[in-house]
Amino acid sequence: MTAIVAELLAGAKRPIGRADQMLDVAEWAAAAYARFDHRAVDAIVCAAAEAGHAKAAALAEAAVKETGFGVVAHKTLKNQMTSRGLYEHYRGQDFCSKRVRAADKVVELPRPAGVVFALTPSTNPVCTVYFKVLLALMTRNAIVVSPHPLAKECSAEAARTMAEAAERAGAPAGVVQVIDEPNLALVEHVMASPRVQVILATGGAPMVRAAYGSGNPAIGVGPGNAPVLVDATADADAAARRIVESKSFDNSVLCTNESVVIAEEAVSDKLAAAMARYGAVMVKDDEVAPLRQALFGAGTFAVDLLGRSAATIAQRAGVRVPASAKVLLAPIDRVGLDEPLSREKLCPVLGFIRVPHARAGISMARALVRMAGAGHSAAIHSRSSETVMAFASALRSLRIVVNAPCSQGAAGYGTHLAPSFTIGTGFFGRSSVGENIGPEHLINWTRIAYPDDASEPMGDFAGLEPWTSLGPLAGGREAPMSLGVLQEGAPPRAPKTAHAAPRAAAIDEMAVLREEIRRLVQDELRRALRS
User: Fold this and answer.
1) What's the whole-number average pLDDT of the chain?
2) Which domain holds residue 492?
């Protein structure tokens, strides 16, 4: 026995064993939490949200210090929006109680997923942890968070903050857990675990593809590359202010930020001048190449410039700009694979291209999205409903933000889209979900359906709540494990004949022995991991 445990705890197997224990605890916590009513769940969600809100500024500062990405004030705002703000948005919505549709003779019972495995990014670490933890708590799921290695400390602190508050408010122990030392092998092991019911993947494309290939249900998101069209009917000053505000927000680490400005010729000069007033700097023609080299000289985006300020990026490129510059505008003459500045840029750099008319601008935007960012987001500044409709119809984008900052608007802030830090890209972006992810994506519904024949009455479900009459399941599991003809946790079956007794006894002894071995191994693992 000691040799088995020693092998499990040795080297690379130690974190795997620890993760398996976390999933075991999460499975039991999920089974217990699934029995809580809406009132108890609301108190738990509120407590976790308030705890996260109280640490919004401190964890924003910790995230910038650990990753080097973004702006503390903006990350503070995002942390506030995904804690108290998210709770207030969904307050009063019930994801726990039955729904009776008397006219349809249907009763709907909410069924939590169970154990949610959440991958979170380095660009928006704390707010994404807050967001996913609260979604899980609202829907009575347990969640295990796996942070990006570049943001593991602030992400772990964010998860623990909400976990402790949730447990103080009555949540089962282990309903929120976090992997302190994530690595690729460990993440792949957990993603493939049969204990995981759904994976919420926010991160780079390879990780999202791995989530979909894990064998478990996954909700993943694709990259953005949002075009923004400004046509001749737009309010140029308002459009300029909104675009600069959006692109400079948190140094443009949100995947919903604008990537390339497509300006109709009739308004392009006025737009560029207005953007300059709001802090954007148009680099000179001979400075575009050094800027392109700084950002994409290695063939891919320079990760060390991700989320850096416009002044820092300009300095790297050898371009002189005022220290107050919020955004760099790079004039380009085309979009395509041969123009790197038309790719996604998670930093305050915008491509700027002029087109003769709105139809050409729509074609340009369509090409940009076809190149990258399919299913994600796009923006348009226009007073023409006809142009807006043509733009939305032509692009393979599932969020079209009109006359508003795309970074915030596509994520549901400043618009009436669902507030979210996980953006579904649908079939266009090879994602299972096409809308902004919300709590409704972490539950299924059992539907009790009576016949539509009027002569068959529907039962009376008033006062009945699911599972309350069943009593606690043995050990908190949803169903006993089966071992041959004997079910674990069930009393031994009485032999039918005297000849059958020895066989039944042998089965019973084997079940007891296996259960004892399992218990001993788990106990020794727990003691070793605590030491």
Assistant:
1) 88
2) 481-530
Judge whether residue 480 has pLDDT over 70. Answer: no
- CA dist 226 and 491 (Å) reads 62
Same domain, 67 and 120: yes
β-pair partners for 423: 436
Q: To the nearest whole percent, how much of the chain has pLDDT over 70?
A: 85
Given this model, what pLDDT does residue 215 score?
87
Cα separation, 97 vs 115, whole angstroms: 20
Amino acid (one-letter) located at 471: G
Catalytic residue list contains 127: no
Residue 465: partners with Cβ closer than 8 Å, 6 or more residues away:
37, 97, 98
Nearest Cα residue to 354 out of 271, 455, 256, 248: 271
Answer whether residue 164 is part of any domain.
yes
Counting DSSP H helices and E strands in the chain, the numbers are 18, 17
What's the rounded Cα separation, in Å, for the pair 430 and 413? Answer: 25
DSSP 436: B
Query: What distance lies between CA 401 and its chain's CA centroid?
Result: 20
Query: CA neighbours within 13 Å on the CB side: how many for 31?
Result: 16
Q: Could you report the per-residue pLDDT of 181-201, keeping only the tens digit for each?
A: 998 889 999 999 999 999 998
Catalytic residue among 96, 255, 347, 406: 255
Cα 479–chain centre separation: 30
Domain match, 230 and 215 both = no
Pair (217, 235) in one structural domain:
no
Q: Which amino acid is at 110?
A: P
Residue pair 144/23 in contact (Cβ under 8 Å)? The answer is yes
Q: What is the CA radius of gyration of the chain?
A: 27
Q: Which residue has the tokens 């340009």?
A: 364
* pLDDT tens-place string over residues 366-382: 999 999 999 999 999 99
Hey, CA dihedral for 42, 46, 52, 56, is it positive or negative? positive
| Residue 11, pLDDT score | 52
Over residues 202-223, the pLDDT tens digits come to 877 777 788 888 889 898 877 8
Q: How many CA atoms lie within 13 A of 491 on its CB side?
A: 2
- pLDDT at residue number 524: 56
